[in-house]
Design a protein that fits this description.
Blueprint (H helix, E strand, L loop, with lengths): L2 E5 L5 E5 L6 H7 L19 E4 L12 H10 L7 E3 L13 E3 L6
Parallel strand pairs: 1-5
Antiparallel strand pairs: 1-2, 3-4, 3-5
Bound molecules: FE2/S2 (inorganic) cluster.
């Protein structure tokens, strides 16, 4: 199982085990990572799974689709170039060591 890291807004790191085929949101919610809510269960309806993807992790993430981009555009504050909805990032073995920064507000 790939190990993933969630970094809180104050810099605290949580290491969790990710299950291949699940989403990064699934791993965060299952492990009760603060700020990771995933209220819509991954159906692209809530944006409460917003994360900032670490630059060394981005290349290993599932590509972003247009609808995710549109959702991010109007709803998350602040949106950054590395903003993703973590329910749309599928965990693969290549995501080992993947690091995701949880925004201060994720609701
Ligand atoms: Fe709702 Fe990702 S969990 S958009």
């Amino acid at each position: 199982m790939p190990q993933l890291f969630f970094i809180s807004p104050v810099g605290e790191t949580r290491a969790v085990e990710g299950k291949v085929g699940d989403s990064v949101m699934d791993a965060g919610v299952r492990n009760v990572v603060p700020g990771m809510y995933g209220l819509c269960g991954g159906s692209l309806a809530c944006v409460t799974c917003h994360v900032f993807v670490d630059k060394n992790t981005a290349a290993h993430c599932t590509p972003q689709h247009d609808f995710e981009d549109e959702m991010l555009d109007g709803t998350v504050t602040p949106r950054q170039a590395n903003s993703r909805l973590s329910c749309q990032i599928t965990i693969t073995d290549e995501l080992e060591g993947g690091t995701f920064h949880v925004p201060e507000k994720n609701y």
